[in-house]
Amino acid sequence: MRDPIENNGELIGWHDPDENRQWIRENKSREMVDKRTTVAEAVRKFVPDGSLLAMGGFGHIRIPMSLVYEIVRQRRRNLTMFGKTAVHDLDILIGGGCVSRVEVAYSFGHELRGLSPCGRRAVESGQVQVTGEISNAGFQWRFLAAAMGVPFMPVRTMLGTDTLKHSSAKVIEDPWSGRPIALVPACYPDVALFHVHRCDRYGNAQIDGITVEDFELARATRRLVLTTEEIVEHGEIQRQPWRTNIPFYLVDAVVEVPFGAHPTEMPLVYYFDEEHIARWLEVSRTPEGTAQYFEEFVFGVPDFDAYLEKIGGKRRMEELKRIMNLQPPSGGEAMP
Amino acid sequence: MTANQRYNLTELLACVAAGLLENGRSVFVGTGFPILAAMLAQRTHAPGLLIIFEAGGIGPQVPALPISVGDSRTYYKASAASSMHEVMSASQAGYVDYGFLGGAAMDCYGNVNTTVIGEWEHPKVRLPGSGGANDVGSLCWQTIYVMRKQSPQTFVKKLDFLTTPGYLSGPGARERAGLPAGSGPYRVITQLGVYGFDEETKRLSLLSLHPGVTVQEVQAASEFEVLIPEKVAVSPEPTDEQLRILREIDPQGLVIGK
Questions:
Q1: Taking CA B68 as the corner, what is the angle to CA B52 and CA A323, rounded to the nearest 5 degrees?
Q2: pLDDT at res. A2
């Protein structure tokens, strides 16, 4: 067989599978204990400087914003972010000076809303380093390998492209078909942060709507912090255990944070706050505007509840709920 | 050109693109314009079009233009709200007929760059990267691209970065690289016309010109030589019905307005 073809992307987040098994054996509790804590405490404990970090959700969907703002508030530094479609979260963390490296599947762009002024500025000036490129499925399957406890996943994507050349994947000859196949290395983030619809105090969690990469990521990451719209009784989980996407033993901390995804979308609950996202995209055009945004919405408020008051409180969140339900934001008939 | 009182360029392109999507097929749609065209197809000639979104939405009746490919509207009245693993695996296994994407720059083999302008190490402009585009261009049977600004800067001889595979370096190159056999770029729609790929050379070849556009304009707006067959069709103009539906889908002009 031919030698594997190596590529140029830096390998980050990989562990030998035996080493990771041992880490799990020693560090992940199989006891069902109360894991409730606060946003500030969860960040203090589980997101130290230099962490390899991944977020649940997707782009502007189901992003754990209370934790993101808290990371800025606690002035975490030198984080490496897995840009598995990381957009608003990454933008805020770059703007806050917290992230120094990113492995990019999709970053620095806000889909229909345009490119990210803040993320672009950071990469183009060299303030933030891109460690490598990958595709969305490539990242997804890096997490799948880690979730399965295997060192890599064979995939048929990225072959023949510069995306592959700048990734940490290798290409070998498939021993069965004899064709080239890409192997993406398992990816174990140090910590992943999710916002979920509901969970119990032990961390048994339910996500409504699409799960994107969260099933695999929850199983790949070493530490997992959940914020949740609501903490429910364990009996509520037991009533429909087939709805549990994330069982408790994967979870390290649980915080109840209603509206904790604002200004991103909480599927089936509240829609994107387009006004607030547009405001961020506008002010983050300059370093001064970015600093001012953080003064107003992060450093100028003690916690996420105070932030919510600032963006319009319950009234604004009710509007965003109406938009989610395809109703006009303030009263009137439902849209056809 | 397409400056016409009845419709704007985006509307023309959406109708042309929608027309390529056959009823009873499956399409993996990227963000922005592709969603608009797929929704139009679903509401006109292709009610049985299976629309698939990369974040997990499968077979929705999309009620209003989603802002994101993971927006809750991407699984409104859907068959399934699943995961990225589900839809990417379905693509890799061969269930997905069309991939539908936008691109920043393309070469004559339909390879696309959405990663950087300039050198990768020191980019002049950092673009978002592959996202799901490389997966769509690698794994779907036929990829359709929409590029609203064809020019010598976007139809280029050499890409700064090859993000998503077209036919790579030419005939047989995809298969030699290990990509699924028989897959590859199918159509490219720009503001000037619709292109396919020559069967022998796998090079970009003109299929139809939009109303009022000339072959000279097509060639002038490309750094590489576009193959021009003897017979070139004219793209159909949007019908009133199509225009009415498009404006219903995107009343705020999020995409149409661009």
A1: 110
A2: 65
